[in-house]
Amino acid sequence: MKKRWKKILPFFKNRRKYFVAIIPALLIGAIVFLTLLDNVRTDTYDIKRFAVSEETIRSPITIENKQETDQRIREAVNAVPDRYSISEEVTEERINYINEIFDAVLTLKEEHDEDTIEDMYEEEAIEIRSLLSEEISSEISEEVFISLLQQPEPALEEANTVFTQSLENVLNQGIRAENIQSGITNIERDLAYSELDENLQEILLDLADFAVVENSFFDYEATAQEKKDAATLVDPVVIRAGETIVREGQTITNEIYEQLELVGVLSQEGNIYPILALGFLAAVIAYFFGMECLQIAKERDWSVLPIIAVLLLSILAIFVMKIQSYFFDQSNALYLVTPIAAIAILLKVLISDRSALRLSILYSILAAFMFNNYIAGMLHVEAAIYFLFSQLAAIVLMKKLSERLVILKTAIGLILIHSAVIILFLFLSFEKYTWFDVFLYLAFGIVAACLSAILAIGLLPLFESFLGMLTDMKLLQLANPNQPLLKRLLVETPGTYHHSVMVANISETACEAVGANGLLARVGAYYHDIGKTVRPGFFIENQMPNNNPHDKLPPKESADIIIRHTTDGANLLKAHKMPKEIIDIAKQHHSNSVVQYFYMKAKELDPETEEADFRYPGPKPETKENAIVCICDSVEPAVRSLQEPTPETIDSIVSSIINSKISDGQLDNSPLTLKELKIIQHTVCDALKGIFHSRIQYPKKEGDK
To answer: Ranges for the HD/PDEase domain (predicted)?
Structure first.
């Protein structure tokens, strides 16, 4: 058992630093789950039919009301009338019968003169009946034929034309069994408006009784297709998520009760699936948040402070959105006022652009759920897009804090971006907005931009103070010459102050060349020799000519005084509550190098002198900025000591100093690569050549000594 624990314990010891990311991730996951629980969970109600609703109830889901849809389909199908098809054969047949009758009568009248026909009406009528079709002769009496034979030919021809046209019109409209009489009535009306005499009209009405027959028959296929088309055209009755089913004070009718039952708000069992989905979402958010925290921790040497800052800012973002969601509903757009860009600004300033960008995406995803008006299954995509653009704009627009009015410029840029996104939403919307709505929403966007800038300015000092985090704004404050320590350095050690300013300028240039924090190197260089203010007269740059106290001291004691300025400086900076990064530069700017002058002097007095007794305590530089200040601190006085500095001698000195530090192992703990050291060497040489360039020797005037 003990052997097993010996194997397990190292595993946890090596990985316990990962808890720096795991614990915040679990905490964020829990917060996301709890804050979104009421956004995805459906409330249920104990309501009876015909009771009065105590609150307004909206549908939590989008669902089809199949019962209502089926009822509308039945109504549409029943409203379709039966379809009938008109038989053209019957129509043509009846018209041909009428033409046949008139043709027979007219033909007979042409073959016999009028006198002969008048004496033989009955015989001629019998002859006509024998010549006509069987259906005509069987249905039309002899009296009709006799009456026709008694009419003059012109009247018969006109009657044939008028009657045939009227019959054709009536039959083309379709005659069913139940409206035969109405068809005959239509023909009677047409005849009444004609110029035919009344006797002939009476005869034609007898023919109408024969000619008007059923020619419109029920069409089963057409009727079925019509009913099918009508059913297809009925839109499904859909209850949409967020739709109000019953309002407060409204009576629960049977129809309303069925709708409430359909959308599931009457079920007391609840639905566990949204809870499971929310758990999965929270786990995904926690995973990506934890991975980002892990990367931040690795970059910051497993420091807890940046993780705490990210955690606090994320919690703040979630709670700001949650509080804002309580005031948001479909009738307003108050999500536009949310100052989410402030979180992105703080993340960029305190952590990095990468972290600000990645976490902005997570916050935007949460906004889609947070502003769903507490309707399960709904996502507010507009809020997510607005928040994403707002945060991205803040990240892009927020430049270095070393620039003046950078927050104000960012706020102005945010106003423009917010306005553009809001106008885009309005143009893409199907709803019609008044000019008042447009200006109101634009005002919301302006307020959000201003609030973001104000919150960023207000919260940044809090994070700097309570978490001890170093920002560009804090560095700018420390670089102010009116800082007490810098004023003391200037007054008590003017030579050291000048040296510090020179080192600061060169270090900043070198840092920017390799992508390090130039502002941090500059400010750290200002304070790196602050320990010399404890014994200013023991450092050569502050001594008057022929007044060196080291001449009266043994080499070891002199070396101890020189070496002690790093620890004195660190203690002085701690007493003034300076940031850890500045203190580290003061402690590490000499690495573990040897105080060469006093070591060689002691070596002359005692050959057994140990080199270790004349080395700085370190530690060795652990960051790029610390290593660069270390190099520049050695290079600047070496070049300044040259009587006539030339580009060649400057290159030679800088190269030899950097190589000696590498060979002595003084840069072993720094992350600088050989390639970066080459870049630093060239950059430092160029800077020094610009400072210590050769000067023209002006000729003396006559009489000058």
So the answer is: 492-647
The amino acid at residue 589 is H
Q: In terms of Cα–Cα distance, which of 382, 395, 363, 378 is closest to 285?
A: 363
CA 299 to chain centre: 28
Cα 137 from Cα 516, distance rounded (Å)? 119
**CA-CA distances (angstroms) from residue 529 to 231, 312, 585, 590?**
91, 36, 9, 10
pLDDT digits 0-9 by tens, 110-130: 776 555 445 566 677 777 777
Which of 101, 89, 214 has the alpha carbon at shortest distance from 163?
101
Rounded to whole angstroms, what are the CA distances from 157 to 122, 566, 688? 22, 137, 128
The pTM for the full model equals 0.64
The one-letter amino acid code at 155 reads A
Tokens of 436: 């008042």
| Helix, strand, coil percentages, rounded to 5, for the chain | 70, 5, 30
What is the DSSP code (8-state) at residue 36?
H
Helix axes 435-466, 341-350, angle to 10 degrees: 30
If DSSP codes are grouped into helix, strand and coil, which group holds residue 157? helix
Residue position matching structure tokens 């033989």: 120
**CA gap 580, 626 in Å, rounded:** 12
521-554 pLDDT, tens per residue?
Answer: 999 999 999 998 888 888 877 777 777 788 778 8
Reference 645, options 680, 682, 690; nearest CA is 690
Pair of tokens at residue 281: 């979402």
> Dihedral angle at the C-alpha atoms of 534, 539, 544, 547, nearest 10 degrees?
100
How far is 353 from 344, CA to CA, in rounded Å? 9
3-state SS assignment for residue 64: strand
In whole angstroms, what is the distance from residue 464 CA to residue 681 CA? 34
Residue type, 568: D
Task: For residue 498, count other CB atoms closer than 10 A to its CB.
Answer: 13
Q: Is 216 helix (H, G, I), strand (E, B) or coil?
A: strand
Look at residues 586, 576, 453, 575 and name the one whose alpha carbon lies nearest to residue 520.
Answer: 586
Listed in order, strand segments (DSSP E) in 44-179 are: 57-58, 63-64, 84-86
For residue range 409-463, list pLDDT tens digits in order: 888 999 999 999 999 888 887 667 778 888 989 999 999 999 999 998 888 888 8
What's the CA gap between 408 and 456, in Å, rounded? 11
* Whether 587 contacts 527, CB under 8 Å: no
